[in-house]
Amino acid sequence: GVECLDLYFAATEPDAKGEDVRTVDLKPNGRDILVTDENKDEYLKLYLRYVMLDRCGPQLQQLLVGLFDIIPYEMLMVFDYQELELVLCGIPEIDVNDWEANTQYSIEIATSPVREWFWQIVREFSSEDRARLLQFATGSARVPLQGFKALISYDGQTCPFSLQSIPFSDTAYPRAHTCFNRIDLPLYKSKDQLAQILSLVINLEVTGFTEE
């Protein structure tokens, strides 16, 4: 059993050099209570609470003071942890129909087969590759809580995803402008060529930046 580990309901607090300098009881007289198979679950809960909360309590308190100074406590408390994750990180699944419906195009893309090929390819992508493409284009692999209509630019203003055309050449690759949620696409000659290049770019994590 766990008794052979010679653990007690206590934790050691190291100094900056990593040397044990003091013992902290996880419960009253914890340093004298041996951890056994019967009480190991209690030990784990108390030890994790100490490591994650009690040991850094003052720092966490100051962090909360700063957080609540920006976002009032009352506004945050209406969310559970899953809802808060959605607000902060966005929706994990990517709705391609919503993405397409909230996309703007240059005239060349709008009147080219490349537009249709692009969305066919995105629909054929795995969920992971869709997220990679979104990351390539916007700098984030998550969709805003309100959907693609809520994409924003670097300055916090609403900025729809867009596809712009650039001249085609054998050495031309898609370029991303993450500050503006934009991909510049060469007008490729076939869907297969576009699919091959898009897959290459998103898996190499090549992102283009401009001075715009």
UniProtKB/TrEMBL annotation:
GO molecular function: ligase activity; ubiquitin protein ligase activity
Recorded catalytic activity of this chain's protein: S-ubiquitinyl-[E2 ubiquitin-conjugating enzyme]-L-cysteine + [acceptor protein]-L-lysine = [E2 ubiquitin-conjugating enzyme]-L-cysteine + N(6)-ubiquitinyl-[acceptor protein]-L-lysine
InterPro entries linked to this entry: E3_ubiq-protein_ligase, HECT_dom, Hect_E3_ubiquitin_ligase
Active site (UniProt): 179
Any single biological process term in GO: ubiquitin-dependent protein catabolic process
Pathway: Protein modification; protein ubiquitination
Domain HECT: from-to ranges: 18-212
EC number, UniProt record: 2.3.2.26
Keywords, in A-Z order: Ligase, Transferase, Ubl conjugation pathway
CC terms in the record's Gene Ontology section: cytoplasm
The protein's name: HECT-type E3 ubiquitin transferase
Organism of origin: Thraustotheca clavata
